[in-house]
Design a protein that fits this description.
Blueprint (H helix, E strand, L loop, with lengths): L2 H38 L4 H14 L5 E3 L2 E3 L2 H13 L2
Amino acid sequence: MGDTDERLLAEIDCTLRLNMTLTHHQALSTQCNRLQWLQDGDRNSKFFHTMNRIRKTFSGLSSLLINDVLSIDPEAISDRVVTFFSEL
């Protein structure tokens, strides 16, 4: 494997780890917001739903370097990640 391949694999690994961490953080934040909503009752419904909507906006893998080209196409990113892990 060349240096470029190793850097690409390392970047994919870091990006996937970041995405997993963000997903776990989002789940924890949602649970904390839900707990607060349950404690406060219906008067906090708007806050709860707004916070979840904001977190969904920022979560996920939005771009990935594929064959030295930065891709923002969700389907291309998904295909590359699946291909990467199926080749391991």
